Amino acid sequence: MADDDEIILSELEDDDLVQQMMDDLYDGMKAEIEESVNILLERGWTPYDILTKALVAGMTIVGHDFRDGILFVPEVLLAANAMKGGMAILKPLLTETGAPKMGKMVIGTVKGDIHDIGKNLVGMMMEGAGFEVIDLGINNAVESYLEAMEAEQPDILGMSALLTTTMPYMKVVIDTLVEKGIRDDYIVLVGGAPLNEEFGRAIGADAYCRDAAVAVETAKEWVARKHNRMAGMQQAAAG
Amino acid sequence: MTPDDILTRKGRAPEGRGKVLALACGALAREIGALIEANGWDHLDLACLPAILHNTPDAIPARVEEAVLRHRAAYARIFVVYADCGTGGRLRATCDRLGVEMIEGPHCYAFFEGTDSFLARAEDEFRAFYLTDFLTRQFEAFVIAPLGLDRHPELRDMYFGHYKKLVYQAQTDDAALTEKARACADRLGLAFERRFTGYGDLARALARA
């Protein structure tokens, strides 16, 4: 997509540089993304603006083209890797500069499953959207989720599975939350290749997320709903 | 194109003989053909969908349905030689709706080993990556090219970093194929184990077809 002949990133105007960053993300050019992030920081851009206007915007295009069958998994991974390079520079600065916080998510691949590519993409896009993400990694038993939720008090629990044989474990986790009377304290989102909406509903999740972009939109929507519900309850209590 | 390439990309048309059609994944064509021949199952005809659907399981139920509807008038019965194969229960729902039987279990790795023993072992072996005879022969088409490892070998550990070993489920005794499977393991940075399975539950399932 990008024309790599003799583009001097530091000589580009802001708008052109942002456009170039989107091209570089699309092409998975990590070093160029890192360089551009540093250039924009030097020019006085806030970390939040760089994140949202260049990196997240660029990854959104990658996500759409993946969904539409234009890009495939290797290209998405390369793009994600490039974004990760930019995020590594921005992440410490985002906290310092008081970037908006959307909420907190605990996410992990379920017990018996070691696949984490989709989960990692979701985690990265959620961070890009302003969520704090606690990533539990792979092969998580119900105890691991419960411990993290107790310690972190997240808004959202995200579970991922790639295998037909491991996806039923999501129900084990949700049933345990129900047994403990804490199911409704969390928004539960699930995803992974063999899942579908019907499965999500059947196991008692709040939503099935087809891909990382859908996960972000779904998370925002459910967090907004949760906040509205809590505000309504507070008003009712006050009235 | 080699015969395996054809099974990967195009599948195989039925020969128009026999009363029962085995509608299978192209990855099973050789094995089913061998079983038909060895057992003298003249009532069985074989049609295969492209084996590469293995990499896009979402597409399997619709392709199976289309093939069942296309062929069912010519046969007394159709037996779908797929397991769930990553369809998350959707293939089972499709087969139930169409009134055709399919193979029990999650995938061919399970029925080659024997589904019960595979599942019993699954908890201790979830860091294993499996290859069958067919997948070993078609390793480039099913693993290397779709994952972009030919163009971007640096992605290998993002895909396989959590795996420990490659289990080659051998349907046949073939020293050259075993060496190829070992080379596949080396290429993925995994330990190698050869496990002779023969045709496992596939033979028993087809005997009922």
Describe this structure in words.
The complex is a heterodimer of chains A (239) and B (209). Chain A has 239 residues and is α/β, with parallel strands linked by helices. Chain A has 2 domains: 1-100, Orthogonal Bundle (Methyltransferase, Methionine Synthase (B12-binding Domains), Chain A, domain 1); 101-239, Rossmann fold (3-Layer(aba) Sandwich). Chain A is built from 9 helices and 5 strands; from the N terminus they run H-H-H-H-E-H-E-H-E-H-E-H-E-H. The longest helix of chain A has 27 residues, at 212-238. Chain B has 209 residues and is an alpha/beta fold. Helix content of chain B is 43%, strand content 17%. Chain B contains 11 helices and 7 strands. The A-B interface holds A 72-75, 77-78, 81, 112-117, 138-139, 163-167, 193-196, 199 and B 57-58, 84, 86-90, 106-107, 119, 122-123, 126-127, 146-149, 151-152, 155, 158-159, 162-163.
Large-scale geometry of chain B: globular
How many whole angstroms does the radius of gyration of chain B measure? 17 Å
Taking the alpha carbons of the first and last residues of chain A, their distance comes to 58 Å
Order of helices and strands of chain A: HHHHEHEHEHEHEH
CATH architecture term of the largest domain in chain A: 3-Layer(aba) Sandwich
Task: Specify the helix fraction band of chain A.
Answer: 55-70%
- C-alpha Rg of chain A (nearest Å): 19 Å
Structural class determined from secondary elements of chain B: alpha/beta
Mean pLDDT of chain B: 95
Total domain count of chain A:
2
The name of the CATH topology of the largest domain in chain A is Rossmann fold
Structural class of chain A: alpha/beta
Low-confidence stretches of chain A: none
CATH class of the largest domain in chain A: Alpha Beta
What oligomerization state is this entry in? heterodimer
